[in-house]
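Lab notes, practical 5.
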Amino acid sequence: MTVTTLPEPAMILEPNLANVAATLREKFDGGKRMVIGDSDVVHDVELRPWGIGSEQVPQPACHVGIGWNPLRLHATWTSATCGSCLRVRSTGGVLLLPGLAVQPPLWVPEPRQEALFA
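Output from the prediction step:
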C-alpha cells in the first residue's frame, strides 16, 4: 500500500490567493472605484488585508460586504455614490457609526492578530 502525503492546505491556497489578490489590485489600480454585482451604487476603494494569508485586496471604503466571488466586482471611473463611502472620505478615512463612534477594524494587522488566538 502506497501512502501519499498531501501538502498543507495553506500551501495550496497561498499561490492562488496571491494571484487573485494581484489581479484585483491591478483591476482597481489608479483610483478606480467599485461596483458590486448588478448594483447601481459606486464605492470608493481602499486596500485592506484580506484576512486570508498576507494579501492586501481592494475593498469598499465603507466596509460593506462584497461576498467571496471577485468576479462580482467591477471597476469604474464613475464618481462614488455610496453615502457611507462619502462619509468615510469626509472624515479622513474613518467610518463613523451613529453617535460618532468609530467602527473597529474587522481584521487586526499582523502580528497582533496572532496574539488574539494565543
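Observations recorded by the TA: The two ends are 39 Å apart (CA to CA). The chain has three helices and seven strands.
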